[in-house]
Design brief:
2 helices
Length: 65
């Protein structure tokens, strides 16, 4: 995968991860510094899992080498 496509995929995964984390933490009712830290950690974990899952799916479908 080219560097440009990897960069685009990372930005998309980060956006989805951050949005999902914000929704999760907001629904729990956490706010302030604790909520910000929880959102950051959850967002990074979700973005990493989404990116890794996309790589695995792409390789399984033969789209990536």
């Amino acid at each position: 995968m080219s560097y440009v496509l990897s960069g685009i995929a990372i930005v998309i995964c980060a956006g989805v991860g951050a949005t999902s984390a914000w929704i999760i933490v907001s629904s729990i009712g956490w706010d302030g510094v604790g909520g910000a830290i929880a959102t950051t950690i959850i967002g990074m974990v979700l973005a990493t899992l989404l990116f890794a899952g996309g790589i695995v799916l792409g390789k399984a479908l033969g789209l990536l080498k």
